[in-house]
Amino acid sequence: MITIGLDMMGGDYAPLEAVKGAAAFLADNAAETMLVLIGDEEKITTVVKNNPLPRAQYTIVHAPQIIEMHEHPTKALKEKQASSIAVGFQLLATGKIDAFISAGNTGAMMVGALFSIKTIEGVLRPTIGAYMPRENGSLGLLVDVGLNADCKPENLNQFATLGSLFAEHILKIKKPKTGLVNLGEEEGKGNLLAQAAYPLLKENTHINFVGNIEGRDILIDKADVMVCDGFTGNVVLKLAESIYDIVKRRNIEDEHFDRFNFETYGGVPVLGVAKPVIIGHGISGSTAFKNMINIACRMVTTDLSGKIKASFE
Amino acid sequence: MITIGLDMMGGDYAPLEAVKGAAAFLADNAAETMLVLIGDEEKITTVVKNNPLPRAQYTIVHAPQIIEMHEHPTKALKEKQASSIAVGFQLLATGKIDAFISAGNTGAMMVGALFSIKTIEGVLRPTIGAYMPRENGSLGLLVDVGLNADCKPENLNQFATLGSLFAEHILKIKKPKTGLVNLGEEEGKGNLLAQAAYPLLKENTHINFVGNIEGRDILIDKADVMVCDGFTGNVVLKLAESIYDIVKRRNIEDEHFDRFNFETYGGVPVLGVAKPVIIGHGISGSTAFKNMINIACRMVTTDLSGKIKASFE
């Protein structure tokens, strides 16, 4: 039995979309998963009444406080011990849930992940990636997308390992091609960071390094895992997100560009912390929640954390 | 009379597209411009025979050598003194032409600009920007897009001044809104570079600073001049270029996305060098050449170099 903790108070449409997402997930998945719905019990119960969930597959853990989106992460987590995020991390740390998902305050989720779960030994900096839709229908992973604005070469090298393990076990890509985002293709190109990271990636036996990739390669399938500092990655991600908005404003109907709707992906895990933690987009809808629960399950069943641990030994 | 030097041997379609572009430009512009066509005289003459130019508005300066795209810039410039690029810079340095345009070897153009024309006093690093098409039909300027992979805060601050002057005098945008590309909107966000650049931009009296802009703001008109290091800018530019390719592959017909065809823009000037120099895309077609000649003319008539000089005094 896998037990997934879900913050019901996080996100702009809480708790309705989280409940709907849970229902959609449970409809597809038989008895092997238990969902722990964390948040205001009364509010959750009311919503569940209208959106029923199979009784044997969920429990509610009451957490009366909410960390709002604008609150200071560390301060809020400390002062709101009964918040859904704080309670979620307590459950995760004590092994009562196997994974924790929230679309709430990103900063509070990060602080919770780093301090109550801790990083895997050897991982210098955990990272967050984002999916990049490619024309062949698959998803690539861009990593980091904002958690680490300033990076050292070894950070990028570790992001490559973390991203490759995620791509292999969660996205099910065999020997994921791993590329270094750069301003030119040739070895030796780049800013100082990319120049210094290249030889480390080349020597990294945990990854299938395919060399430098350029901006024009991010939306094709030249590499499955695309490594960069969090500043560059964040600018790229938000630019890619804005393409969907432009396409919609211009009334363009296109299957491929529909996949630029990043809201449906929900979020990707914090890679490098000891247990599965997924931070969702604030505007996550039910599909996003369903997808996040699915990914959390896969992280638990494949023991991604254990595999990361082994790679960093 | 404005005299514009045009490298006829640069670019993938030399000299045909350059001649066509010159013809298109001269068809719109009366007697005030003289074009100096630099390159292999025989080849140019042959092409001009089939694509006639008004006899009073051009001369040919014979330059029998060509610097190929793959050649080492410094070495090639030194060894090929009779190449179209070397001759172009000789003409520019000695005042025989007012501006020089080439779609040839970018590195050789940069070396030529920096060493035969030199930077304007006070400019630490010249920069190259790129247009960003926005939905309202206007163009923004992203600067730097690859010339300066690693930057110091003062470099970004100078790019802001250089980009603003270009936007004001060449793109004719009054008090161009100037933004710092960053991973968040709030002051204090960013990597170390952006954090340190922000206060400099805020204090810069030569620009109309509007604060941080995010990746999602690059393709809208939140800022007219968008400042970043050349690594980030290069990745963004090439990603934006690839959007056009995807749109075309998917047979999407859309006026706005047609403006993502960066080939038509031709190129933007090297900002910060003492005289107007424009480096074009290798695949420049006739429209690109025409646009580059137009911009070069505007740079001369508005005395952009003089205005930059005054801002850095």
Write structural notes for this entry.
Two copies of one chain form a homodimer. By secondary structure, the first copy, chain A, is of the alpha/beta class. Chain A has two domains: 1-120 and 272-306 and 309-313, Isopropylmalate Dehydrogenase (3-Layer(aba) Sandwich), CATH 3.40.718; 124-262, Isopropylmalate Dehydrogenase. Helix content of chain A is 41%, strand content 17%. Chain A has eleven helices and eleven strands. The first copy, chain A, has helices at 16-28, 41-50, 73-79, 84-93, 106-117, 153-169, 192-203, 230-249, 255-258, 286-301, 304-311; strands at residues 2-7, 33-39, 58-62, 99-102, 127-133, 139-143, 177-181, 208-213, 225-227, 270-271, 277-279. In chain A, the strands form two sheets. Chain A has a six-stranded mixed sheet, sandwiched between helices. Chain A has a five-stranded parallel sheet with strand order 3-2-1-4-11, sandwiched between helices. In chain A, strand 2, helix 2 and strand 3 (58-62) form a beta-alpha-beta unit. In chain A, helix 1 (16-28) packs across helix 10 (286-301) and helix 6 (153-169) runs antiparallel to helix 11. Chain A is globular, with a radius of gyration of 19 Å. The model of chain A has no long low-confidence stretch (mean pLDDT 95). At the A-B interface, helix 8 of A face helix 8 of B.
